[in-house]
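Collaborator request, handled under Task 6.
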Amino acid sequence: MTRVTLHGLPVSSGIGIAPAFLFRSLPFQLSGDAPGRADPGNEKALIEQACANIKAELADAEEGAVAGCMTSMLTDHLFHGGVIDRIDAGMTAADAVVQTTNDLIAIYGEAADPVLRNRADYAEAVGRRLFRRLHGLPTPVFKTGSAMILVTDEMSPFEATRLHAGSVAGIVSERGGATSHFAIIAKQRGIPVVSGIQNALQAIVHGECCICDGTNGEVHASPGEAMLVSARTRLAEVIREREALAALSGPRTVTRDGRSIQLWGNIAGPADVQPVLDAGGTGVGMFRTEFIFMGDEAPSEDRQTAVYSDILRRTPGPVIMRTVEAGGDKSIPYLTVDHEENPNLGWQGLRMCLDMEAFFLTQLRAMVRASPEGELWIMFPFVSALWELRRCRELITKAHEEVEARGVRPGNYKVGIMVEVPSAALLADEYLRDFDFCSIGTNDLTQFTLAADRMNPKVARWYDSYHPAVVRLIAMTARAAHKARKPIGMAGDMASDVFFIPVLVGLGFDFLSATAPRIGAVKKTILSLDSRRAQELAGTVLTMHDTEEIRTLLKKKHEELSA
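C-alpha cells returned to the collaborator:
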C-alpha cells in the first residue's frame, strides 16, 4: 500500500522511480553581517572540516575528471587562500566562501583561454557545495546507475544545469511552473518533473522509494508492489519508444508526399547543441540567451561573443538567438525590479531591454561579432507594438556599425520577431514587412490570449492552447508570414505536441523547434503525415468553436495515424 500520493502540476513528462533526496534551497549570498564578529580560529576549523567532507563526497562522484578539477579547487591558492584571508579579516567562513567564489567567477569568466573560463564553473560548483555544507545542508553527488528523485522547495538555474537524466530520475518541486528555468533545463534533459506540491519536503522522507509521474502530475512515496510493477512497465515502454525514435535521427524530416519541414532544437547553452544533433535536429530553433546572464552581474561583451560563437560553430544549420528575456517568470537577480502586481504584464523582455539601451546594445554587438561563425538568426521576443520594432531595427543597425568601426567584418544574419502577444499576431502582416522571419511562442500566446497565468495552478484548466482563439491567432500569423513570403516557425510547447503537429503542417509552418528528447516524436509524426490531408484537417479545426471538440478530433486523427 502506498504511504502517500501527492498531486501537482505535470511540468516535464515521463516517469522516474528512485530513492528521494531532499534538497532544500539556500540562496548563495552574503549574510550582511559586519566583519569582525566571528572567531577566526573557529571559522577556519569549520572550513577545513567542510573541505574534508567535500573531498570525500567528490571521491564518489560520477565524472572523475570534473570531480578532480573540483577537488583541486579546494586546495587552490586563489580559492582556499582567498577564503582563509577573508576569515582572517573577520568574515565568517560562509561569507568568505561567497565572496571568494564570486571574485573568482569574475576573474576566470572573462579569461580568453577556455580552460581558464571553465575554472569559473568549477569555482562556483565548489563554492556552492561548501556553502551548503557550512549551513548543514547536503548536496547530492550524481552517479549514473545510482539515480535519485530530487525533492526540493525551489531549484536555482545553476543547480538545474547540473542535472543529468542518468543520475536524476525525476524532480518534485514545491514551486516553479512549466516555464521556470529549472523546468526548461529538465525538459531539455528529458527528466520528469512534478511541481506545485505544497510541503513536499515535509511529506516525503529522505531515502524512501518514490515514483515521479511527470505525465500525470503525481508523486507516490513508498509505493505498493502493484503500483511499482505498473510504473516499471510504463518506464520500460518509454525506454523502448525512445530507442525506436533514435532510429529516426538519420532520415530527412519530410511528409509522406515530400514536403520538407525543418526540425530544430531548443537550447540553453553550448552543451545542449550536440544532443539536438544526435536526436536528428539540424539547427537551433531557439537559444534562450538569458541562461548565460545568470549570476551576480551581466556577462561582458567578450564573454557573450565567445558563447555565441561557440554555439554557431557547433551547429550545421541556423541558430535562432532570442535576445535576453528577463522579468516576469524569468528572474535574474541584478535585473530584478520593484514588486509588480502582475509581472507577466509588466516590465519584462523587450520592454526591459529597450529601457536599458547600453545593456541591450552589448548583447546585439556580441551577436553581430559572432555572426561570421555560422548561420545566425537574431529574434526579438515579447513584441507588442510597431514602435518597438522600429527601435529594434535602429539598435541592430547601430550595433552593426559599431562592430564595423572596430575593424570587425560581420557575417550575414537574419533578424526576426517572436509572436507571443495577441497584438503581434493580429498585426503580423505589418510587423513582418521589415523583418526576415517569425516564430510563435505558444506558452505566452496562450497565457495572454486567455488571461490565464501559466504559473498559477489554480487557473490551469483555463490555460489551454487548444482554445479556438489561440488556434486562430496561430493561423492568422501563418497566413501573414506566407503573404510576406517569410519563414514561420514555432518554438513553444505546441511545436512538440504530436496531436497538434498535423495542424501546424497543414498551416504551412516551415520549421518546428523542440527539446532534444522530443525531437524523435516530432519527426515520427511528420514522417507519417500527408501535407494535403493535414491542410484539410487544419481547415476543419479552424471552423470549430469548442476546445474539447478540437482536442477530441486531433487525438482521433493521431490514433488513426498510429494504427
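The cover message to the collaborator said: "The mean pLDDT is 88. The chain is about 45% helix and 15% strand. Please let us know whether this matches your experimental observations."
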